Amino acid sequence: MKKIFVITAILLIANLLTYAQDGKALKVLISVDMEGITGVVNWEDVDREGKDYDLFRKIMTEETNAAIEGALDAGATEIIVRDAHSTARNILPDLLNPKARLIRDWSGEFKSMVEGIDKSFSAVIFIGYHAKAGTEDAVLEHTMSSKNITDISINGISLPEAGINALIVGYYDVPLVFLAGDSSICAQAKQLFGEIEIVAVKSGIGNAAINLHPAVSHEKIKEGVKKALLNINKYKPYKFKPPYKLVVTLKHEEVLEQRSEYPGVKRTGDWELTYENDDLIEVMKAMRHMF
Ligand SMILES: [Zn+2]
């Protein structure tokens, strides 16, 4: 009994010492989208006007809580949740774990889905994420705007929203350590980031999807987040080498015409706009004008 207590105490102190390195506490940002939440299969499910929207915003909140619990189990000292879908007013504040603070609505800043990120964070977690536009057998796949955008690439690499957001957090030297969503975005995350903990909560079958039960998703997410944060040194911030070349492929002529007016943007193909800059923040600002 005594021996177990001593061993537990030593392990706890060792963990605390690890987190205290570089003077950083274990501060975690959780960015939550909705298309990749368990059970969601249709645009109606993620739209405020949809009949089942209230059910799925509750599951979205519970899935976020699972990530928070995993982070707390790993010793997280501060947790910020960023609601990152549509109005950014989906997560139910009263049902969210009180240990976390919630960012709602859009500031208009380029950080967008990872609003709040800065160098003080230790790790970032993505919940409810979805595959990039044009992915086969993916649930509600799109990149930023399903209406306007066919593809977004930076330095020749076609990116899902998870890739774009990982570059923004990477700019602040913070690693993305965990992602949950459908099996397609999980595969894309593995391909882009290599070292990342993933949980696939569903798999697309054309427009349909086979889903885990939400309770099973929550358990897997909690364990996955805990595992990732306990091995935080494994993960590297996602970065590209400057200069950055952004290529956005659009769907509509009038949108293309209008977006090409942004300073520095060049039309480089029938449906293609290109913007180049050495500063990643300028690239992200330009991208926001092309949705
Ligand atoms: Zn969304």
Automatic annotation (TrEMBL):
<dbReference type="GO" id="GO:0046872">
    <property type="term" value="F:metal ion binding"/>
</dbReference>
<feature type="binding site">
    <location>
        <position position="35"/>
    </location>
    <ligand>
        <name>Zn(2+) 1</name>
    </ligand>
</feature>
<dbReference type="Pfam" id="PF04951">
    <property type="entry name" value="Peptidase_M55"/>
</dbReference>
<keyword id="KW-0479">Metal-binding</keyword>
<feature type="signal peptide">
    <location>
        <begin position="1"/>
        <end position="20"/>
    </location>
</feature>
<keyword id="KW-0732">Signal</keyword>
<feature type="binding site">
    <location>
        <position position="33"/>
    </location>
    <ligand>
        <name>Zn(2+) 2</name>
    </ligand>
</feature>
<feature type="active site" description="Nucleophile">
    <location>
        <position position="142"/>
    </location>
</feature>
<feature type="binding site">
    <location>
        <position position="33"/>
    </location>
    <ligand>
        <name>Zn(2+) 1</name>
    </ligand>
</feature>
<feature type="binding site">
    <location>
        <position position="130"/>
    </location>
    <ligand>
        <name>Zn(2+) 2</name>
    </ligand>
</feature>
<feature type="binding site">
    <location>
        <position position="85"/>
    </location>
    <ligand>
        <name>Zn(2+) 2</name>
    </ligand>
</feature>
<dbReference type="InterPro" id="IPR007035">
    <property type="entry name" value="Peptidase_M55"/>
</dbReference>
<dbReference type="InterPro" id="IPR036177">
    <property type="entry name" value="Peptidase_M55_sf"/>
</dbReference>
<dbReference type="InterPro" id="IPR027476">
    <property type="entry name" value="DppA_N"/>
</dbReference>
<feature type="binding site">
    <location>
        <position position="161"/>
    </location>
    <ligand>
        <name>Zn(2+) 2</name>
    </ligand>
</feature>
<protein>
    <recommendedName>
        <fullName>Amino acid amidase</fullName>
    </recommendedName>
</protein>
<keyword id="KW-0862">Zinc</keyword>
